[in-house]
Amino acid sequence: MNEQKPGKVYLVGAGPGDFGLITLKGLQAIEQAEVLVYDRLINENLIYRAPETAEKIYVGKQAANHALPQDKINDLLYQKAAAGKIVVRLKGGDPYVFGRGGEEGIYLAERGIPFEEIPGITSCIAGPAYAGIPVTHRECASSFHVFTGNFKDELRGLNFPNLAALEGTLIFLMGFGNLPYITQGLIYAGKPAATPVAVVSHATRSDQQTVCGTLADIEQKVKEAGLTPPAITIVGDVVNCRGQLNFFEQRRSPGVLVLRDARQSSPFAKMLRGAGFRPVICPVIRIEPLGLTPKLQDAITNICRYTWLVFTSPNGVTLFFRQFFAAGGDLRQMAGLKFAAIGKATAENLQKNGFRADYVPNSQISDSLAKGLTEKLTANDCVLLPRSAIANNNMVPMLAAKCRVDDVPLYDTVVQTSCRNELKTLITSGEVRYIPFTSASTVDGFYQAIGGDLSILADVKCAAIGPVTAKRMQELGITPALTASEHSLDGVLAVLKEDTQN
């Protein structure tokens, strides 16, 4: 019997938090992962870039609370790779900068497991940069030095006399809880109390905050500002550059909350950036494909019996054709079919799969689609309607009044409330100005994620993609301040832009 050929482990740096700071090579590794082992503070949008079939394992650490001890993480990577899997170990920042990536790599190498380290943008550079602080500057510092601020006791801590003698910028990672020890230690070792200091909380993320002061007063200023970890501490004259270089915090565009499935947030986020908005991704729903169910298998096997194939979302198009080909379907079987799409985005996705929509209603509403289609149907027609399992509208009875209709569930929409604390913080802190709801399911997901606490919406404007979504918002007590006239993402973008100009 042949032995199992080992797979491979990729030690991938995810960057400091901003989704856009992942490297292209790192993203490519995530997209081919069979097992994703990820840390705390990883941007959720990266996690959902892994294949749907990938096993996702959280092993995050924070002070005095490890989801999985390091020795267990090492063994987990080994066991999964030894079973022939492609494993991505996704770590914040860079794996080799206080990330224990070196320990994991050595453990794998000693056991004959192939691995590759894909560097990430480390927070010790990106964090200060997003706060408007260059780690070096010809007039301020010709070097920078990075230290961990996370240690068990002073005996295992920092050699302050050596640090105080350094002329470059001093950067402390993971040292928020030890800020008094660091500042007082530097002062006692001879560093001038007036030395500029900055503390950057949640660096590169939408809720980033920066407090500046000196070694003498930074501790008090941080307390007054209510900063929370994770945070980076920068000590040196380069902090004074912040007044001119603070591109990220001073010139922030209006924040727009993106609530869609994380795997589908990127196109909308790209549209928002292009229009001058700042997308804040915080998914409250997750699209779960149902796979090749018996009902779908029967529809695909007997595709020739249908005269119309009707799609009510881009998701439906993507998942239907995925299962069609997986079941051995042949496009020639669809030669006699006509296609209907609920709107522009759905029609465009259909065209990517090789078919033009024969009918698209003027209004992107399920009732409009059904009403327009019934005018084209006869008793001899047969309609296949592959769509969401939670779809709840009048389409089936309206179409069934004219001909046979097979309503086939393709996917379920699952609410995820794990982001509750982050979501409330984003809204109440002023990071978000607009909350566009792009479907009734995002309304339900959002309402559950905030625990029904609508008081947090006092200072934001909520927008609806169309009347169906607006109705669901009103049913739950959410006032749609804006409603798109064109019921699409383009329409949502248009009403947001119009509102900012008023």
From TrEMBL:
It is an enzyme of class 2 (transferase). Residues 268-493 form the Tetrapyrrole biosynthesis uroporphyrinogen III synthase domain. GO terms for molecular function: uroporphyrin-III C-methyltransferase activity; uroporphyrinogen-III synthase activity. One of its GO terms (biological process) is siroheme biosynthetic process. The keyword Transferase applies. Its EC number is 2.1.1.107. Keywords: Methyltransferase, Porphyrin biosynthesis, S-adenosyl-L-methionine, Transferase. Residues 8-218 form the Tetrapyrrole methylase domain. NCBIfam families: cobA_cysG_Cterm (TIGR01469), PRK06136.1 (NF004790). PANTHER family: S-ADENOSYL-L-METHIONINE-DEPENDENT UROPORPHYRINOGEN III METHYLTRANSFERASE, CHLOROPLASTIC, SIROHEME SYNTHASE-RELATED. This is uroporphyrinogen-III C-methyltransferase. It comes from Candidatus Avidehalobacter gallistercoris. The lineage of its organism: Bacteria, Bacillati, Bacillota, Clostridia, Eubacteriales.
